[in-house]
């Protein structure tokens, strides 16, 4: 007998789907993650400009993290696909506890332009510190004038 008061996992996410990708923290594998982002956005019915923006933002976020990753680190990306947007969270283990994700670079400015929201999470005081770059791109339907 099932409990009708308990939501199913799909109901609990309120129409959202989650996809996780984990690869070695290597620049050579970033195109794989970029392809996943592009495919998810296309399946969520994003317009071509939004798909391109998401693909480039994911590329830049991953490249930024690979630069500070330890040689044996994994690049872990989680995509939360909602009807109106896709949220991407990426993280790596750093080379050093003091390693930081630089937010004063041209690449970071590009990332801020491509994504609707960008944030860095970093705890430099712990040896197991994991800098995290999270990006969110809101879904745009049709041709929206900017």
Automatic annotation (TrEMBL):
Compositionally biased tracts (Basic and acidic residues): 136-146
Identify the Pfam families for this entry. Answer: HATPase_c_2
An example molecular function term from Gene Ontology annotations = kinase activity
Q: Its domain of life?
A: Bacteria
Stored InterPro entries: HATPase_C_sf (IPR036890), HATPase_dom (IPR003594)
Q: What is this protein called?
A: Serine/threonine-protein kinase RsbW
Query: What are the start and end residues of every segment in region (Disordered)?
Result: 121-146
- The species is Pseudonocardia kunmingensis
The UniProt keyword set, sorted, is: Kinase, Transferase
Q: Where is the Histidine kinase/HSP90-like ATPase domain?
A: 24-125
